[in-house]
Amino acid sequence: MRLFLAALIALLLGLNYLLWMTDDRGLRQMRTLERAVADQKSENTELADRNKSLEAEVRDLKQGNAAIEERARTELGMVRGDETFYRILDEAPSSPPSALTKPGTAIHARPQAPSAPAAAAPAAPKPDAKPAAKPAAPRPPAPKPAPDSGRPD
User: Could you give the CA distance from residue 151 to residue 153 in angstroms, rounded to a whole number?
Assistant: First the structure.
């Protein structure tokens, strides 16, 4: 009887060890799987919301012109024929526009007298200036194909 009782206690301890301590089965894996199920449910909810919005967009595109017009305006930059398009720049231009860019303005060129004598020092190239590009060499003419003699080789 003592041997049977010792075997039952050993079996009970072994099952408790499997239930509490192992990673591949037992309570730890159950908690891991519950977290995975919760994450999957939240992802499914987000995807279901996205599907609903896409279905509504498809319905709008099929039924009315308002959605198509909005898409053409935002994505393609299109305007209707009776509208005027104004482009507003975020930054001010670095230099004032020249008279050549303004239609209907006259060009007045006045020579300016130098205010101080110019120094005889040579101008140093700017460090960010690109070197002048070399002119492209002319391409040789393409070879002409040999005339076909009409005989098989």
Answer: 6
Q: Which residues contact 79 (CB under 8 A, 6 or more apart)?
A: 73, 85
Tokens of 31: 């908690």
pTM: 0.37
Helices 65-76 and 27-63 meet at what angle, rounded to 10?
A: 100
Each residue's pLDDT tens digit, 9-24: 999 998 888 777 777 7
What's the CA gap between 60 and 102, in Å, rounded?
Answer: 43
Question: What amino acid occupies position 19?
Answer: L
* Burial tier of 91 (Cβ tally within 10 Å: 0-12, 13-18, 19+): exposed
